Amino acid sequence: MHPVRRTLFAAVCLAALATPAAAHAQRDSATIEASRAMNLRLIGLMQSLQIAGSPELAAAINGLLSDTSAHMRMAPSRPATPTDSARGMELVRAARAALAPYRDVAVAEREGYVKFLPWLADQAMYHYNNVQNVFATVSSFDVTKPVSLLYRKDASGAMTLVGAMYAALPSATPDELDARLPLGLAHWHEHVDFCGPTPEGVRAGTQRVDGESLARWLRITSRDECLAAGGRYVPRLFGWMSHVYLFAGDDPKAIWGGDDHDMMRMHHHD
Question: How much is the average pLDDT of 43-54?
Fold first, then answer.
């Protein structure tokens, strides 16, 4: 895609995601399908972008990928029960057995997992997304088919599988999240309060979509600040997500995150 058309398409995607239908998905199938299709188009766009790297953009995106930024909101948590612990153990056991072959990233790639943001060489956490699993997770949950595999680079530069990411619709209730991964263990989160250029601004050449500009947009974290900057406010990107560090050992806190074991340093914000 031509760079100008690609940046215009990016702005259009962001604008569409900001509409009430996409940001606050209703229960009817047409709206769910529209939201899912738009999110998948946005994933595809972000995959295809070729943006010159900059330290500012790398820092902004790595903060987002590791969920240390103000763009992350946590779902309500619940006290863990013995039932949660037993169910969590079974989920981890099943997922480990199914996903162990993906310790070899080449196997994951052959089976449909694609590196997210391939143009960003140095990532704190590498997400390898599976579009078919994204489709499937809309209507059902299978712990052996995560939407993403999570890798870190070791000292030699090789990819090390550390876990998986699971997802749910933006409209999912706490009970629906709990039915997938227990709220007493899992840290469900969503990415919120984004700002981007308007299609009109990109078309007119008054707003740019390059590394330095995108880093500035990512630093905006409220509707008022976004509108003051002349941008298009996006309340939410994608839906609910949860990282499970299946290969971090047998300590539940290391697997699910907690206290000083948090690998994402998650936090709540209003």
Answer: 53
